[in-house]
Structures are given as structure tokens and as C-alpha cells.
Amino acid sequence: MGSTLGRRLPVMADVAKEAGVSHQTVSRVLNDHPNVRSETRTRVLEAIDKLGYRRNLVARALVTKHSRTLGVVSFDTTLYGPASTVYGIEQAARAAGYFVSIVSLKSIDKAGVRDALDYLADQGVDGIVVVAPQRSAARALADLPLGVPTVAVEGGEAGDVSVVCVDQVAGGRLATEHLLSLGHETVWHVSGPSDWLEAEGRVAGWRAALEQAGREAPRPLAGDWSPRSGYEAGRSLASMRNVTAVFVANDQMALGVLRAFTEQGVRVPEQVSVVGFDDIPESEFFSPPLTTIRQDFDAVGRHSIEVLVRQLEGGLQERERLVVPPTFVARVSTARA
Amino acid sequence: MGSTLGRRLPVMADVAKEAGVSHQTVSRVLNDHPNVRSETRTRVLEAIDKLGYRRNLVARALVTKHSRTLGVVSFDTTLYGPASTVYGIEQAARAAGYFVSIVSLKSIDKAGVRDALDYLADQGVDGIVVVAPQRSAARALADLPLGVPTVAVEGGEAGDVSVVCVDQVAGGRLATEHLLSLGHETVWHVSGPSDWLEAEGRVAGWRAALEQAGREAPRPLAGDWSPRSGYEAGRSLASMRNVTAVFVANDQMALGVLRAFTEQGVRVPEQVSVVGFDDIPESEFFSPPLTTIRQDFDAVGRHSIEVLVRQLEGGLQERERLVVPPTFVARVSTARA
DNA sequence: GAACGGGTTGTTAACGTTCACAGTCGGGGC
DNA sequence: GCCCCGACTGTGAACGTTAACAACCCGTTC
């Protein structure tokens, strides 16, 4: 192609020439500036349409210092919880007119979190959501000097940043109280990894409920969220005589527990009642269908964007703390003692 | 505070002044240009370190016309398959030095795909990966005049774009042949939604295996990937006398099938053998543990980035088609007829 | 001693927007 | 008739980087 025009994408100046106005007027039209004669506006819009012009957001970001991009750092988005949360975040962010740039961490240690944050900051994101369910991640966040508005999901006492989370303690309570109300003497617990804030919250809720009912809390069995660890915990529990009720810290482990019980000939819910946590789509079809505590991940994602955008567009503000309540889902894995 | 220096972030010019060189030399150091005296280089690096300078990637993108950002558009990243694929994509992209911007679609229709693509193009991504498992998405892709290098995951005959996919037909064959080899007269099938290419491929593989063995293919039961739809198909199957082997198009539906069988008193694998597809983490702990076909989503994600990056950095090229083989995973849900 | 050439550095001009400011035009008040 | 003001539009300069080119230094070569 000659030097005449080639394949070059049209820029504002081209539109301006086409419409017989200045590039600034084009800019005004694009930004909905009020003081543009409506006739001029249509002329510009026609030119835009004719040339197939699209504004260059990179150039815009350079001068405005806003990229309208939000960063998300999350741990293992393969898991149902993080995946759902990130999904909610993405939907909400796009609805609010932001792009979403994502970083999934394999393991969360301080260095990993810092790197991810740096990485996103380099990219020029306007704000960051950190799905930081581990204590170590939350601590990293608290220590980091972040130049970018940030909100933490499940972040515990995450220093100066705003936090959106599910009330894990209430969830643990809900599960345990349900089992106690069915007449069980006490409730056993298969917990998540101790580094996780969610695991810790559920343990606390379980303990509080038992204490309030004046029951002894048995020693919790620790899992790692995986079905396998639930299976192993289930084998231990099956070998004990006095177990009639178990609160498992997530549905995947609960699946493992159910499997172990089945193998050992322990019948659920006739001999032992089981409650899970999360309400993954599969839970309803476990054998037997799992009574569980539902977390509204979607709401968590949405809220975190709301908080972040408020912070971004409303100037600096108080840090907020938003707690989403969990709900009880009755199915058939629990029965009277 | 004053006009002296304020809180302004340092730019290249500041580093240049600090090091007593020109901003261009700083740029050269940052870009590993060979012709910089090593003494100068260290002086510049020291200045960068002292000032805490970080280069502005937005400005850089403006002039180079490369953002080093890749776009990903995917359908419902809440599902295990897409989530794992996107995870693999993200890991590989970051390793290759690219940022990842993501768009999750609720529903995939032509307009949705086009919007997502436009959206990402506006943002200035260098390339796009479309996780397009539906026929409609693939068709949308084929029709679209895309100005950006694109690769499709599970994209079927996706027009001019490169494709990375799992060999679904081979997977369907694997499952069916396994069941036939156990002596079952024929194999029933619970399929995915007909609009999905993956569903179609699995049906084709199942049919081919039956045909090759000279067996009649029963009418497949259609599901929608959800455990519930599997449950409903399972109830139908349980009510039939002659069903001894079922190939279910994904593990979630297989869970539903198992549930229905359990409820109806049909024993797996004693009376009926069941094979799933995907190998989700839960499958191993179903009752009974599910024999299934494993898809290496991670590899798919990685490969798609490899193909895309090759296209990006190697100039325009032939479109590629990369097929990842599925593998058979033996567990206990299948037995001799 | 002049011309050459490679390594090293600096100068100037893009890139495509938005911002700050300066016009121009027309109508209303005195 | 004059001034002012508000609506509208244009001009020039940022933003922070890389690209293109020019310039310099110093050692070789003829």
C-alpha cells in the first residue's frame, strides 16, 4: 500500500477531519461533554461510524492515569469457591465498566502475594481485589505498602484494606446447632487447613455452639479441603463407637467422609449425621444428598467490586468491612439421634 | 506537597537526571540494549533502585503498540472444565510474560461473543483465547472479522483461527470400548447438550465404537451437564430392564445417574456399569468411585497459549490444530457383564 | 593525516489521547 | 451601542515511553 493511507487504523484526528471539526470536539463527543451542539455531535458520530473509529484506550489511560482495569489475585481458581467468587467479581466489574486482569497463585506465601501485587501495579490497574483466604496471605497484605486501592475477600484482619467476607463463624454455628437440635450428644468436626481463615472461623463457630450448649468439644480432625483428606478423616471417625454427628468444613471433604462411611458400613443418616459447607452443585446428589451451609460466593464477588469502586470513585474513604451471612440448606444427610 | 517534588512517581527523566545520562540511555538499560557501557548500566540501575522507579507500561504500550496483555473469553468459569482451562491459560501466559484479561460469559450467543471480542480489542490486547465449547460460539468466531490473533479452545471448525482441543471422539471411544470389552451387550449414553461440540464428539466416539463392534446404538438420553439432568436420565435408565452399561458424558451427570440408581436399588457396578468423563477431583470418591475419561485441561490451556504466542511473535503463520488425547481412568464403577 | 567504523550516547519526534486555556459567536441587559 | 456571559469550538501542550537519527569518541586502516 502506498503512503496515502495504508491499513492504519483511524485516530481522532482522522475523524475530526472527516467531520470538519477539531480533534478536541471529537473527544468531547466521545466523553459526553454537554457543550456540543447536537448537530455537530451527529456529524462527528457519523464520521466515527463511517471510518469505523474506535478510541485508543491505551492513549487515554496514559493521560488520565486511569486504565479502568481492576486486578484480581486469587488462590487456585480451580476450586469451586475461588472460581465462583472470581466469576462474581468479573461480572460485577464488567457491569461497572472495568476490565479485569487476573493472577492465579499456585501457592500463597508472602512473596507470591507481593509479586502478584507488583505485577498488577506495573500493569497500571486502578484497584485490586485479593481473594486471600489464608492467614499468610492476609498477613502479607497487611504488611505490604500498596499504592493501589485494594479490597480483600475473606481477608480477616487485613491491615488497612477493606474486607468482604462470609460469616464463617455463623456458618459453623448454624451447622452445629442444627445437629445439636436433632438431639446429638456432641458434634465432631473435620476442619480445613489451619492456615485458612475460613477453616478457623468454622472451627470457632462449631466450638462456640458446643460450648453454649454445655457440651464437650471433641478434638477436631484436620483435613486439607480435598475429598481424600475427608476420606481419611472419615475412616478414623468410622472406627470410633460414639460418633453420631459430624460437621465437615467443606462439601468436598464431606464427600470423602460419606465414602469412607459407606465403605465401613456406617449408614448416613441412620447411624451418623453429616453436615457440609459450601453447597457445591454436586452436594444435592451425594449419597445421601448433603445437608450443608451455603455460601453466596456470587454476592461476595459483587460486594467486593462495589466496595472497591466506591473507594475508587469516591476518593479515599474509611475502610469498610462487609459480612455476607451463610444460609442453612436442609437435605437428607442428617437425622434425629 | 510543594511544587518541589511532591508525591509524583519518578519517571525515566528523573532516573536519567539522577544517573547523569539521557532518558534514552535509561530506556536502553531497561530494554537490555547491548550497546551500553557496563559502568553506565550500573549507574542507571543504581538510580532506578534509589528512586524506586518502575516503568510505565501504559506509555510503553502506546508507542510500541503492544500491551503484552492477552484476552480470554470463556463460558461460565464456575464449571470445572472451563475453570481448569482458564487456570492453565493464565499460568502459561504469565510465564510467557503476558498479562491476562478475562471475560466470562453467562450465555454464549453470537452477540455475546462479538461483544466480548470487541471489548477486549478495545482494551488493546495483543491476542485472544476463546474457550468456545458451543457450536454457536464457534460459528460466531468463524464469522467475525477479528483484527487480533485468536486461538479457540474446543472450537471445532472455527473458521480461520487456530484450535486446541481434547480429542472428544477418542474419549467417547475409550469409554465405550472399555464397557464392551467387559462383555456388555451394548452401551447406553447420557449426552451433553446438543449445541456443545464436546457433547457431539463424545456421542460420535460412542457411536463409532458400537458400530465397529457391530452393536445397535440405543437412543441417547440428553442432559445439560448438570447433576440434576443426570439424575433424571438415571431414573429413566433404572426403569429399563436391559440396561447394563452406561457412558455418561461428564462426571457431574454421572453423579446424578449414580444417585438415581442408588435410590432405585440398582447396584453399581454389580447390575450396571457406569463410565463418566472429565475426572473431576470428586469422582474418585463417588459411591462407587467413578471410572472415567480424563481430560488434561491444564495441557489444553498451556498449549493454547503456546500457539497464540507463536503466532504473536513469529509473525503471521499457518493456522494450527492441536489435539490433546484423553486418558482412561479405571476405578470401581464398572465390572464384567 | 584523513577517512572509516563500531561502540556509546544524546536529541528530537512520534504514539493518540485529554486538559487548560483562549477564542468566537450570539443574545440580553443597561 | 456597548458590555458581558454562556454556549460552543479550536489550539497548544502535556502524559511517559520508544524509534530514528545524529553526534561523539577512539582506534584502525590506507
Greatest interface (CB-CB under 8 A), with counts per chain: A-B, 51 and 51 residues
Oligomer: homodimer
The helix content of chain A, as a percent range, equals 40-55%
Distance from N terminus to C terminus of chain A (CA atoms, Å) equals: 83 Å
Give the CA-based shape of chain A.
elongated
Please tell me about this protein's structure.
The structure is a homodimer of 337-residue chains. With 337 residues, chain A is an alpha/beta fold. The first copy, chain A, is 45% helix and 15% strand. The first copy, chain A, has helices at 12-19, 23-30, 38-51, 57-64, 80-95, 110-123, 135-143, 168-181, 197-212, 227-238, 251-264, 297-313; strands at residues 69-75, 99-105, 127-131, 150-153, 162-166, 188-191, 221-222, 245-248, 273-275, 292-294, 321-324, 327-329. In chain A, the strands form three sheets. The first copy, chain A, has a six-stranded parallel beta sheet with strand order 2-1-3-4-5-11, sandwiched between helices. A four-stranded parallel beta sheet of chain A has the order 7-6-8-9, sandwiched between helices. Chain A has a two-stranded antiparallel ribbon with strand order 10-12. In chain A, helix 7 (135-143) links the parallel strand 3 and strand 4. In chain A, helix 1 (12-19) crosses helix 2 (23-30). The model of chain A is unreliable at 1-6 (pLDDT under 50). The interface between A and B is large, with 51 and 51 residues.
